[in-house]
């Protein structure tokens, strides 16, 4: 999960040397990486801070230097994934054709699950119900930020092709897209080419709304 490390970074305190700060950040990244793996393997509820600490050779007390609770650690896992997703979406916003932009955004969304530990970490993203309200609200805000480019794309689509999507509700479209895309790690056979899977799933989704609205 090294490709996610750029999304895990804290500002260096003034009274801490660069070397000490980097060591702390490396440790924090290792904790988050291990949490992803164990939450995926054992589930959030069955994974303890002791389990995570044991995997990387530190005590539960040492973990508290980085995270106040398992809930905060779960939030940080969510935060890393959403920051990664937002960065991917930002790079696709210059695509002029709304249908092509939608296609590329959805393909990118699905393919993100096939980066290193992502298929295994998928259960981590289903643990929102266990969050205290403060973290739950922050995750909801991240979800809104991820959804915004999709809603904008549908708006652009309607402007570019007024005869399409006339009788379709944007929320229904977006929920259907995400439900289908997010289910891919559940049924992937572990062998099929992820790029081909993404293209096939997205073609069904995007061509489907064109067909329904025609």
TrEMBL record:
Keywords: DNA-binding, Repressor. PROSITE patterns: HTH_TETR_1, HTH_TETR_2. This is TetR/AcrR family transcriptional regulator. Residues 48-67 bind DNA. Gene3D superfamilies: Homeodomain-like, Tetracycline Repressor, domain 2. It comes from the Bacteria. InterPro entries: DNA-bd_HTH_TetR-type_CS, Homeodomain-like_sf, HTH-type_Tx_Regulator, HTH_TetR, KstR2_TetR_C. One of its GO terms (molecular function) is DNA binding. It holds the Pfam family TetR_C_24. Residues 25-85 form the HTH tetR-type domain.
């Amino acid at each position: 999960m090294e490709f996610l490390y750029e999304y895990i970074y804290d500002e260096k305190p003034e009274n801490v040397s660069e070397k000490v700060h980097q060591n702390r950040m490396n440790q924090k990244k290792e904790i988050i990486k291990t949490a992803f793996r164990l939450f995926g393997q054992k589930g959030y509820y069955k994974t303890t801070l002791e389990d995570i600490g044991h995997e990387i050779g530190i005590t539960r007390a040492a973990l508290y230097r980085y995270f106040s609770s398992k809930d905060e650690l779960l939030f940080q896992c969510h935060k890393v994934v959403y920051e990664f997703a937002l960065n991917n979406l930002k790079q696709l916003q210059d695509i002029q054709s709304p249908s092509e932009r939608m296609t590329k955004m959805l393909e990118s969304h699905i393919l993100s699950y096939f980066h290193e530990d992502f298929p295994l970490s998928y259960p981590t993203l289903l643990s929102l119900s266990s969050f205290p309200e403060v973290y739950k609200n922050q995750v909801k805000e991240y979800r809104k930020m991820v959804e915004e480019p999709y809603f904008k794309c549908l708006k652009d689509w309607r402007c570019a092709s007024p005869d399409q999507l006339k009788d379709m509700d944007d929320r229904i479209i977006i929920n259907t897209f995400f439900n289908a895309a997010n289910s891919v790690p559940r049924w992937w056979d572990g062998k099929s080419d992820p790029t081909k899977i993404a293209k096939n799933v997205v073609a069904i989704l995007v061509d489907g709304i064109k067909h329904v609205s025609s």
